[in-house]
Amino acid sequence: MRDVVVRYPASRRGAAPTTAVDGVSLDVARGEVLALLGPSGCGKSSLLRAVAGLEPLAGGDLTWDGGSVVDVPVHRRDFGLMFQDGQLFTHRDVAGNIAYGLAGRPRGQVAARVEHLLELVGLPGAGGRAVATLSGGERQRVALARALAPAPRLLLLDEPLSALDRSLRERLALDLRTALLATGTTALFVTHDQDEAFVVADRVAVMASGRLLQLGTPADLWRAPADEQVARFLGYEAFVVAREAPAALRDAVRAPADATLALPPGALVGPGASAGDATLTGMVLAVRTRRGSPTLHVAVPGIGEVTVATPAVGVLDLPAAGDEVRLRVVREAVVVLGR
């Protein structure tokens, strides 16, 4: 896609049109999974719908194998679609849903394809089940199998996991990645969840206000966010100008005085740092435990409120809210912005 613009008419007389996508250019390699990541209203779903042919372009071009598809009808683009609610056919059983896009093929070939995809998405033998008997996660697995069945040249996924609870989303994100890789499917994947994007995608395009802010692999984005806006969205939680940073942080992370130091959760570790270390001190605001792993929410003078890792500290040895703790800087975790 090159310089794609999607614009919606004004909602009331005298108002200006809304530009949802503003000059975005992206390439997706064959077999690649590319995530469009950004907050609600950033234009990612509008861009996906434009690629599908569901939204007209106000500018730019969309091409596949060098040829423009802008004037190609939706049903002739050979692009698959999967939405967050699955949109399964309730009058068909699971096998009938998956086979929907295989009409006209030999019956034996269809049955084999359905069976293979059910195995792939973790629902072996479920072809005869009614849609009404499926859980939310199972419905999305069936929807994925249906989208993959005709082997689309591009699969478009619009927040396919967002309606599920977090633990189920995390499991299905891994399964989604596995299924896309196993089928060699080229995919454009929309999500507002950075963890989800990092699990599923080969590369991630971060968007805000209709524009592309940064494009890269998950590892590259995390190691080197383009600016504070990108870093904040990825989950970095504290930002301090180097010249104003506490001495222990300046000593641990050498940076130009006018650079910004960005700290993700876990960039500070404690308790357990010795008095001889270059350390910071902070006051515990709360102790949190997720899946048996405790973290501290700590207010650190000169930095702000941060999430502190607590390696090798037993639950009984954790400080309480109101306690002062000594913290060590994990130099490798801190990113220098604006070099």
UniProtKB/TrEMBL annotation:
Protein name, entry field: ABC-type quaternary amine transporter
Highest taxon, organism lineage: Bacteria
The keyword Cell inner membrane is annotated on this UniProt entry: yes
Organism expressing this protein natively: Cellulomonas gelida
Family matches, as Gene3D superfamilies: P-loop containing nucleotide triphosphate hydrolases
InterPro entries: AAA+_ATPase, ABC_SmlMolc_Importer, ABC_transporter-like_ATP-bd, ABC_transporter-like_CS, P-loop_NTPase
UniProt KW keywords: ATP-binding, Cell inner membrane, Cell membrane, Membrane, Nucleotide-binding, Translocase, Transport
Enzyme Commission number, as recorded: 7.6.2.9
Taxonomic lineage: Bacteria, Bacillati, Actinomycetota, Actinomycetes, Micrococcales
Membrane-spanning parts: none
Cross-referenced Pfam families: ABC_tran
